[in-house]
Design goal:
The chain is low in regular secondary structure. The protein is 13% helix and 10% strand. This is Sulfatase-modifying factor enzyme-like domain-containing protein.
Length: 176
């Protein structure tokens, strides 16, 4: 739809996000990768820094479902919400599925380096907060799990690739 160009992909179940990323020649990020991108080496409270969310940094706090998609802002709209590494919208707009299963206590026992998440679970992890989220869900450390059985209009996905490997687009890929 023309009014959805340059807006995040949203309303997909976890499996559909995984398939979408694969279709683009990429994969879903792990929870640890997502958090590293959001926190950075500086251990930022929010993806953009330690300043509280406001309407110059993120799309959040809209209470009602208006029309599907009309509450979303274009990717990169909030210049003050970008991470120091140039990643937009890790807090707000749409929350994001990551590849891991959810276990509230996983990080109490996980490996320190490159944790991959539990082997199984009931729910998948969601990160980042959405257009309808309270500010606390935009924190870099905020995490929760939910069922991937429904298409949620506040949840989308972001694709990733391994660092150091050249990006090899497939026939369905676009350079975004």
């Amino acid at each position: 739809r023309p009014n959805m160009q340059n807006k995040p992909i949203f309303g997909l179940q976890w499996k559909r996000c995984r398939n979408y990323c694969s279709w683009r020649g990429k994969r879903m990020p792990t929870e640890a990768e997502w958090e590293r991108a959001a926190r950075g080496k500086e251990n930022r409270i929010y993806p953009w820094g330690n300043e509280k969310p406001d309407n110059t940094r993120a799309n959040f706090g809209n209470c009602c479902f208006i029309q599907r998609g009309n509450v979303l802002t274009e990717i990169g709209h909030f210049k003050k919400g970008v991470t120091p590494n140039g990643i937009f919208d890790l807090g707000g707009n749409v929350a994001e599925w990551v590849s891991d299963w959810y276990d509230k206590k996983y990080y109490e026992k996980s490996p320190y380096k490159n944790p991959q998440g539990p082997d199984k679970g009931k729910y998948h992890v969601i990160r980042g907060g959405a257009w309808n989220s309270l500010p606390m869900y935009l924190r870099s450390a905020s995490r929760y799990g939910d069922s991937d059985a429904k298409d949620y209009y506040g949840i989308g996905c972001r694709c990733a690739k391994d660092a150091g490997l050249p990006y090899k687009p497939n026939q369905n890929s676009v350079n975004r």
